[in-house]
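Progress note, sequence design subtask.
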């Protein structure tokens, strides 16, 4: 069956209409789709009637590209008349399928007109009521006015149809369908049912008839309603006209078919078909006419040749089918026929009755008779003759006839065949003519013709072939007889050996006379003719023979001897030949494989059996395939090495660059010039050692589980990293700050390390209330994986210990001062202290001290009973509960006019402050008379200055802490003194660690890490930066406790650049010194020319596999050729990439006796080695005109200098150098042009001091924040001096408004603004830092401090870690610092940004984010302060002054201990991200301006500028994780992060700021306020004058000529 027929199918509905209910006037669309083969047709009906198109109804269909037919019915402005049941029908030649769905239209009931129905009696009748309207009306039926059903045979179905079962004539009548709506509306329609009885035919039949007879068939209808139509059919078709057939209509109910004369064609099936209005019935009978046999194929005689196949046709027809039979006459006449035996071999009978005689013989000739008969009439028969002719044939077989010279020789030849038959002798293509020595006698014997040739007195000239030929009219046949003259033979001559192969050779020779030839051969060396000679005899007249069974690659000697009956000749001269090589048939023996590491294994073997090498071995091929990887086979070709001591050859090779932990199938085979031998068997399967896990755990998460406990959970490494087994996991936990904790077995170097085999771990006994850095690494017996990106979680607070140093001082007859120090160590944030006091051992009274996060550690009890004994003690309370009691003290109250002072304020505490941040140290003095407060550090008194400020009340505020120191607060009065000490520890990023190389192998580097301190905070991890030769930088995380590191999977023999950075909570250290080291291995060695090059007359054969390797495998070779001649000819690449699996390479079709230059380059991962040879081909005789192979040095004078310049490598290098110089010149020109217009300069300031990094920063910002709109112009504020402004905050709720904002210019030319003024916001803390600071008295201090910051600030390394770039690139950006630039004297506060204003991308657009929600409450009063930002381009930033703990915000007047956090960018990005995720507080954005016009740039790290990529990590701290550190964004140079204000707004804000300062500071600060106001007024006055003098043209020229990054005011006044 064809595919087209198999694909035919009935339709299948793919989409069908659904029930819908709509209101009148609405449009409706019905859809139906179907698929089938052939393509179906879709039709629609409504209430079982075809749906006709109208002005409201349209039907359309189309076919999709997939062959599906889609049809739509679209109804516009439907009415209740369009409602009904819609049916979709899909049909084709193979079937149909339909689906119906009602369309309900709200409206009154109605009934469509009903057609009359005709039914067959005895069948069930279904009457459909096409009612409409919605809601669906109630349907009833009536007949002639009577309601139905009226009998059991009548039933009304649920859909309203009426069923009349077994209908009869009595059911005929008028039926009415009446529908009634819910509101009583009625409608009706009528139909008339006709029940008719179908016709019934009386059966008739007819027996068999004979040809020529007459007969008739009568069809009678014995029942059925008239009118009835009768038709006749034959074999299912309408009866055709036939003169011998008549149809007679006897009556309305009878018809006769009359056959006048029956014939053969009248046989068949006859059907009478009767039809009335009810049905059509039929009756069929068969008429068979008997017919006598008649010839279809009449037999005929034939004449054939002996041996051919004969088919004698004979076929007849008739009814019944005739029987055919064959007979044969025994004689030569057609009589006495006898039945022919059909044996299936010599005689066969075909299916149609024909006789088949294969390979006919003369005995089968004669007369044959074929007869056909059946039971009707007479049988028929016919006799035919078969003639078989015999062609001429020589029956005597040709033979060799011998005789001696002078004898008479007779040769007899007999032949048979039809006469006339001619028999003759032929010699040398001519008939033999009888002579006196030659005669021919002919005769007829036994029906055969005989001819005898007689040659008398024979001579050697008579020797040779003689042909006997028989000929008649049916053919010719010959036989050859050979006459040989016998005499002693001579030795064969012209002996040659040709067609020499590995195991055969063809020997040819010439004989003087017929004789038997014996070929004798032996191996040339070590065999003798008598013992080892092999003899092969060939027949007379033979002149060649193929020797077989030879051994490949052996030299043989061969000689020939002739012999006959008279003797043996002398041997012919000896001929020498050598068989060619054949591919080895034996495999190497004793193949052994041993894994020698993670990436390599050693394969050793012995040479194959010498008898199976079949030639000189040239090398071996090692085949490797990872098990179960079909087809991935690696072949490595190695040369053969001959031992010096003559012992058996042994092969050995180390295969490198394998997959760790993989099973390999290894086999070895030998090869020679003829090809490769078989692989060694069985295959050796060996596994390489597995490597350390390639990836750490993924999805690391942690949370505090209790007091001093953390729960950590993670997922296994990703699927692509499971090539190495994982034995377990190491959880590394490091506190972000130093803690006092008991040392345990898992705690070393501030790091907890716990191993586990589970996917989660609970770590206990950790410090309470401590932020912990958690990372996880996988490990096995080889080593650990890299660590995951750290996540951070906080341990919960614990119950505090007892407060320390409780003191009770009687201050009056009814008052008592109680002081104490916080518990040590702190186990959480102290919520409050509870002071218990008991009078005369009575019930204690509890007094809560320090609520709302206050750190008050004293309380003066007043209103006590005079002269009473008071007992006091104190407890501390955290969220975990109330701690243990301090020791109890008892004091006796007594009148005390004076008493020694008492110093309070949290003394004895260690404050850890980031370098560059500020802190406020508390100190109060109580005493009578009131004591004075003084501060001492290192034995030197402290007074207010640019770094220290003694606040009202005695607190000491330190700005820009740079070193660790002790600060002692001393309170003194006339009675005595008291003191306590604060310890301030300056915390910075770690110093640069050291990294050294311990051991190098081919694929690994063992490194040693040596830290040189932690900067005051525990090191949270190291980052190893690594790149290969001309590669990208890759960063790898290293746990803080790791001191030795192994880098695996490195490339063999290449240099590797490595440096290390450490990081803690404060930032990243400077990079270590870069170490450049190589893995073991060298470029390919220098081969001997004769080992890899062989030359003949037209070819050069290269054995590249013999090239020596020096530790690193050769990956490929490149072969180039240049012909030597008078013209300069370029190098022609012959093979660009020859792999290690290649054997011998041939360079052929070279002219003989010619010179050529051959250049070969061997490449490995360690480098390339190039050699050049002058190759001389031999002449056609094998002679050499010069040394065949000679190495040519590349720099040798003999080599044409111009040719070297044409080398592609030289040309590429020269072109690259030219392009590089051109690019450098262009860059210098652009830089000079930009410097001419970039920024503003101060009088006397060199052009070199102008900020050159603004354009670079702005370009980077555009790349990093495209679409993020981190900086955008403020549309509602008028910019200062018509310059563009930058807005980063919500204007409606910014507590740090710029006020006022002004710029001015006093330029020496129209194109340059020499001075500028800008203002930005300050916090209340800024008002108390240095209100009297001026520009002139701080410039030198700022320069000195900037140099210190360059040495100590970790911002350099921090930027490097976040961007993943080389460190020296980040030296161009100076991050926000409380002591950087002009703001170094002031406590600074970063401005908060709402989440909606954060840059897009989820990473903050590269800006650092940090939670200091408690540091900038909205209700904090704003205090004004003024300072000048003198050096151009200094970093300008503000951030809050607060402690690093979760202390509540407070004003300075409350004498809280404020610690200014280190600037946001210096925080390490892992820690900052965790703070944002865990505390869910609003992040602050550090506003960064470009650094450095007046400052010295950091010395760049000595590394080339290359691309960096971070090693992939699948932990939860990946780039897609919320803990992923953001990439840093470098704001445009000289830009302020505050929005600009109009001049009026600036004036208003200035006035409000002055009023606020006056209210806050009081009269005592009036002088400072007046000084600042005067300075500000002067600057504003100069600005207004500049605006009045400048023209709009000049301003426009300045605006357009200056770069966009220089349009901001370069100097700042902080308000």
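Output:
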């Amino acid at each position: 069956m064809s595919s087209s027929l198999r694909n035919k199918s009935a339709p299948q509905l793919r989409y069908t209409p659904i029930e819908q209910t709509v209101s009148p006037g609405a449009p409706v669309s019905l859809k139906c789709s179907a698929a089938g083969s052939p393509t179906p047709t879709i039709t629609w009906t409504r209430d079982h009637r075809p749906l006709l198109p109208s002005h409201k109804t349209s039907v359309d269909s189309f076919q999709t590209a997939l062959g599906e037919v889609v049809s739509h019915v679209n109804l516009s402005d439907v009415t209740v008349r369009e409602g009904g049941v819609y049916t979709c029908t899909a049909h084709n030649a193979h079937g149909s399928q339909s689906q119906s769905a009602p369309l309900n239209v709200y409206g009154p009931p109605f009934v469509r007109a009903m057609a009359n129905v005709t039914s067959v009696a005895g069948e069930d009748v279904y009457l459909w009521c096409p009612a409409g309207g919605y809601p669906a009306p109630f349907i009833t039926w009536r007949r002639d006015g009577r309601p139905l059903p009226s009998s059991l045979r009548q039933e009304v179905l649920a859909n309203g149809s009426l069923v009349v079962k077994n209908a009869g004539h009595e059911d005929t009548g008028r039926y009415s369908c009446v529908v009634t709506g819910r509101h009583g509306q009625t409608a009706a329609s009528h139909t008339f049912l006709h029940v008719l009885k179908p016709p019934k035919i009386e059966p008739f039949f007819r027996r068999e008839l004979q040809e020529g007879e007459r007969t008739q068939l009568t069809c009678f209808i014995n029942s059925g309603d008239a009118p009835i139509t009768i038709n006749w059919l034959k074999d299912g078709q309408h009866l055709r006209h036939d003169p011998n057939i008549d149809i007679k209509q006897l009556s309305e109910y009878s018809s006769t078919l009359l056959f006048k004369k029956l014939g053969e064609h009248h046989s068949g099936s006859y059907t009478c078909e009767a039809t009335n209005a009810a049905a059509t019935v039929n009756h069929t009978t068969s008429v068979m006419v008997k017919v006598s046999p008649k010839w279809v194929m009449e037999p005929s005689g034939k004449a054939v040749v002996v041996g051919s196949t004969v088919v004698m046709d004979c076929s007849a027809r008739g009814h019944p089918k005739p029987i055919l039979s064959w007979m044969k006459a025994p004689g030569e006449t057609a009589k006495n026929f006898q039945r022919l035996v059909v044996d299936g071999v010599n005689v066969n009978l075909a299916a149609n009755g024909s006789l088949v005689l294969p390979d006919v013989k003369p005995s089968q000739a004669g007369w044959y008779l074929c007869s056909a008969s059946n039971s009707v009439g007479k049988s028929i028969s016919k006799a035919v003759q078969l003639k078989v002719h015999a062609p001429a044939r020589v029956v005597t077989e040709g033979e060799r006839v011998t005789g001696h010279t002078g004898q008479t020789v007779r040769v007899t030849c007999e032949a048979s065949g039809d006469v006339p038959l001619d028999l003759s002798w032929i010699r040398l293509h001519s008939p033999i003519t009888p002579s006196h020595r030659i005669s021919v006698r002919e005769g007829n014997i036994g029906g055969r013709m005989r001819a005898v040739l007689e040659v008398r007195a024979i001579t050697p000239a008579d020797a040779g072939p003689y042909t006997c030929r028989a000929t008649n009219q049916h053919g010719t046949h010959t036989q050859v007889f050979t006459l040989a003259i016998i005499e002693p033979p001579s030795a064969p001559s012209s002996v040659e050996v040709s067609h020499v192969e590995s195991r055969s050779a063809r020997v040819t020779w010439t004989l003087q006379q017929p004789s038997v030839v014996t070929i004798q051969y032996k191996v040339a060396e070590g065999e003798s003719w008598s013992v080892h000679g092999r003899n092969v005899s060939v027949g007379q007249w033979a002149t060649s023979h193929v020797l077989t069974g030879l051994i490949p690659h052996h030299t043989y000697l061969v000689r020939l001897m002739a012999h006959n009956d008279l003797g043996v000749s002398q041997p012919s001269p000896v001929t020498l030949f050598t068989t060619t090589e054949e591919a080895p048939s034996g495999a190497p023996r004793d193949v052994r494989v041993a894994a020698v590491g993670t990436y390599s294994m050693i394969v050793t073997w012995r040479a194959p059996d010498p008898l199976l090498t079949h030639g000189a071995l040239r090398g071996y091929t090692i085949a490797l395939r990872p098990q179960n990887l079909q087809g991935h086979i690696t072949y490595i070709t190695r040369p053969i090495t001959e031992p010096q001591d003559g012992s058996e050859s042994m092969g050995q090779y180390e295969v490198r660059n394998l997959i760790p932990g993989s099973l390999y199938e290894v086999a070895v085979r030998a090869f020679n010039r003829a090809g490769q031998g078989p692989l060694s068997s069985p295959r050796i399967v060996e596994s390489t050692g597995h490597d350390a896990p390639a990836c750490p755990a993924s999805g690391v998460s942690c949370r505090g589980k209790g007091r001093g406990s953390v729960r950590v959970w993670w997922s296994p490494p990703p699927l692509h990293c499971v090539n190495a087994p994982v034995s377990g996991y190491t959880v590394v936990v490091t506190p972000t700050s130093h803690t006092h904790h008991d040392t345990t077995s898992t705690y070393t170097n501030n790091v907890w390390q716990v191993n586990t085999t589970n996917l989660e771990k609970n770590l206990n006994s950790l410090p309470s209330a401590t932020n912990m850095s958690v990372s996880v690494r996988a490990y096995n017996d080889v080593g650990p994986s890299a660590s995951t990106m750290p996540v951070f979680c906080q341990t919960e607070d614990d119950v505090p210990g007892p407060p320390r140093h409780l003191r009770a001082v009687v201050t009056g007859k009814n008052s008592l001062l109680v002081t104490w120090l916080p518990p040590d160590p702190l186990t959480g944030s102290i919520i409050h202290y509870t002071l218990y006091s008991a009078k005369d051992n009575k019930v204690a009274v509890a007094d809560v001290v320090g609520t709302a996060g206050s750190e008050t550690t004293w309380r003066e009890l007043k209103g006590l009973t005079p002269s009473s004994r008071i007992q006091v003690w104190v407890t501390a309370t955290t969220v975990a509960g109330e701690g243990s009691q301090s020791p109890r003290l008892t004091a006796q109250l007594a009148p005390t006019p004076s008493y020694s002072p008492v110093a309070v304020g949290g003394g004895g505490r260690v404050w850890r402050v980031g370098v560059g941040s500020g802190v406020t140290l508390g100190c109060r003095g109580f005493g009578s008379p009131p004591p004075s407060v003084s501060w001492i550090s290192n034995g030197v008194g402290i007074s207010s200055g640019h770094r220290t400020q003694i606040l009202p009340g005695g607190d000491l505020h330190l700005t820009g802490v740079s070193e660790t120191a002790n600060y002692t607060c001393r309170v003194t009065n006339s009675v005595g003194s008291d003191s306590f000490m604060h310890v301030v520890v300056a915390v910075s990023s770690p110093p640069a660690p050291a990294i050294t190389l311990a051991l190098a192998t081919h694929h690994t580097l063992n490194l040693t890490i040596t830290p040189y301190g932690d900067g005051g905070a525990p090191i949270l991890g190291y980052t190893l930066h690594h790149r290969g030769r001309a590669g990208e930088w890759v960063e790898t995380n290293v746990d803080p406790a790791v001191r030795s590191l192994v880098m695996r999977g490195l490339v063999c023999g290449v240099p590797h650049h490595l440096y290390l950075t450490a990081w803690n909570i404060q930032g990243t250290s400077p990079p270590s010194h870069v170490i450049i080291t190589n893995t073991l291995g060298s470029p390919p060695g220098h081969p001997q020319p004769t080992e890899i090059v062989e030359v003949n007359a037209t070819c050069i054969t290269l054995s590249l596999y013999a090239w020596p390797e020096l530790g690193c495998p050769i990956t490929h070779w490149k072969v180039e050729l240049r012909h030597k001649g008078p013209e300069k000819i370029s190098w022609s690449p012959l093979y660009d990439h020859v792999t290690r699996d290649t054997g011998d390479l041939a360079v052929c079709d070279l002219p003989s006796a010619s010179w050529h230059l051959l250049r070969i380059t061997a490449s490995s991962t360690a480098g390339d080695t190039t050699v050049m040879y002058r190759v001389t081909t031999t002449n056609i005789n094998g002679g050499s005109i010069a040394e065949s192979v000679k190495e040519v040095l590349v720099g040798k004078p003999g080599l044409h200098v111009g040719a070297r310049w044409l080398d592609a490598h030289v040309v590429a290098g020269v072109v690259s150098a030219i392009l590089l110089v051109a690019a450098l010149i262009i860059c210098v020109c652009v830089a000079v042009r930009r410097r001419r217009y970039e920024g503003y300069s101060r009088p006397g300031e060199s052009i070199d001091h102008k900020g050159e990094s603004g354009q670079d920063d702005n370009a980077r910002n555009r790349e990093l924040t495209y679409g993020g709109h981190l900086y955008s112009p403020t549309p509602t504020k008028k910019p200062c001096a018509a310059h563009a402004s930058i807005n980063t905050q919500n204007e409606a709720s910014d507590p740090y408004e710029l006020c006022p904002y002004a710029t001015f210019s006093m330029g020496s030319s129209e194109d340059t603004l020499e001075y500028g003024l800008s203002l930005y916001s300050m916090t209340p803390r800024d008002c108390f830092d240095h209100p009297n600071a001026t520009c002139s008295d701080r410039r030198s201090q700022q320069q000195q401090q900037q140099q210190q910051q360059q040495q100590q600030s970790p911002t350099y390394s921090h930027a490097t870690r976040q961007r993943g770039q080389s460190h020296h690139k980040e030296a161009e950006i100076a991050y926000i610092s409380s002591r950087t630039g002009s703001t170094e004297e002031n406590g600074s506060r970063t401005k908060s940004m709402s989440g909606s204003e954060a840059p897009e991308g989820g990473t903050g657009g590269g800006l650092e984010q940090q939670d200091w929600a408690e540091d900038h409450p909205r209700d904090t009063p704003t205090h004004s302060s003024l300072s000048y930002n003198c050096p151009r381009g200094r970093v300008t930033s503000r951030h809050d002054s607060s402690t690093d703990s979760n202390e509540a915000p407070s004003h300075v007047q409350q004498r809280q201990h404020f610690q200014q956090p280190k600037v946001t960018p210096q925080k390490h990005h892992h820690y900052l991200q965790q703070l944002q995720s865990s505390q869910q507080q609003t992040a602050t954005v550090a506003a960064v301006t470009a650094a450095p016009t007046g400052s010295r740039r950091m010395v760049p790290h000595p590394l080339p500028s290359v691309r960096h990529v971070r090693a992939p990590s699948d932990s939860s701290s990946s780039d897609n994780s919320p803990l992923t550190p953001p990439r840093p964004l470098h704001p445009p140079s000289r830009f302020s992060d505050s929005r600009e204000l109009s001049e009026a707004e600036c004036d208003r804000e200035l006035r409000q700021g002055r009023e606020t300062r006056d209210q806050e500071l009081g009269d005592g600060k009036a002088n400072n306020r007046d000084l600042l106001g005067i300075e500000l007024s002067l600057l504003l006055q100069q600005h207004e004058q500049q605006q009045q003098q400048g023209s709009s043209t000049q301003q426009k020229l300045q605006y357009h000529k200056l770069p966009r990054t220089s349009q901001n005011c370069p100097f700042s006044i902080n308000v």
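The longest helix spans residues 1208-1237. Work on this subtask will continue into the next period as scheduled.
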